[in-house]
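>> received
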Amino acid sequence: MPASPSTARAINDRLALRLLQQEGPLTAGQLKQLTGLSRPTVADLVERLTAAGLVAVVGEAGEQRRGPNAKLYGIVADRAHLAALDVRTEGVSVAVADLVGRVLAEESVPIGGDMATGPAVEQAVALVERVVKEAGADRLHTVGIGAPGLIDPASGELRDSSGLPKWHRRLVAALQERLPEARVSVENETNLAALAEQRDGAARDRDTFVLLWLGHGTGAAVVLDGALRRGASGGTGEIGFLPVPGTAALPSSTDCEGGFHSLAAAGAVVDLAARCGVSAEPGQERSVVGVVRAAVGLVGSAVAQVPEVPEVPEVVEGERRETAQAGRGVKEVRGAVAAARFLDALADRLAVGVASVVAILDPGCVVLGGEVGRAGGDELAARVQDRIARMTPLPTEVRTTTLGGGAVLRGALLTARDRAQEELFAPGERPVQRW
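>> returned
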């Protein structure tokens, strides 16, 4: 059954807007070529979208060209403004963007664990309002929030979770109260990171993959056949609760200690580095990112300088300079050996979790995400892949995130942009209104 004229117009409008989002400004001729529509049809849709305030002339194609055929049409970016939040246990980051997703302002603030719920919420909300003002936006159309914990698939609300700050749930409600005209939604942080890796990061060529999030805590996101899978209760990917060998106890329904979290969360990784004799780089705080980055740097430096490592001469009078140089060389070698031992041990731990995921889902690709995945880089990913190849017959590529810890904020921004465009680009009457 052929589409009605109004349905056909709506389909054509949406197709043109999507192309303008993906390709940037286009002429009517380019829209005709990319859509396959007739010249009169393209002219009609350009007129409709311009009257609706969604499209405007933004320039001309070529310095020597003039006339209506040279006009470049683009989405009216300031038609709506969006906000993205990355909510962590230790703070919050906010970015405000226009309708095409161009970031206009961005800022982060730490929120200490000893801060009461009320002040913590107020500090986070004040940050949002400040970034909105810096971006030059009058109000927000859509707000996307990424937060740790379970999202109820029925209500879309962040569920109560032990071990997570109470201000997280209060923040969502507070933003809805302070921004009554905005569409506020919340999603699990790892799920948003996976969407960002799929759209803009390491998994752009994959319809099926798993993101293993490695940061302050652990998590996983599952994308199968191009779709994010959340599970019956919204808990797909709660890999921190996975029972694994090598821990002192089993996890419980309220505490992931004893699960994979005890092997791969930030505190466990820092402790492992200390046992292996690896410290953060000089002048850097002893954090999980610091020790992993330092280990990768030591191993890489040692590999590059293998032919130049001096032998240790006998300590005799007249050879002090040579001895000092050799001493420094031996110290570097010992540091590299300790670093390699640490990365091997960390890869052993990560492989336990990855192998479990591979055995159940056979994703073909696992992305090591988060700040630790970024710090470990190809050095850590290669070690994990070597172990997975020995542990399972299922071919699995282990990749390094290209977005790192910024993937959550990027994913929140992408979902906010999609939601805003879905509403504003919908068929029917579109009153010209700025958000």
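>> The radius of gyration is 26 Å.
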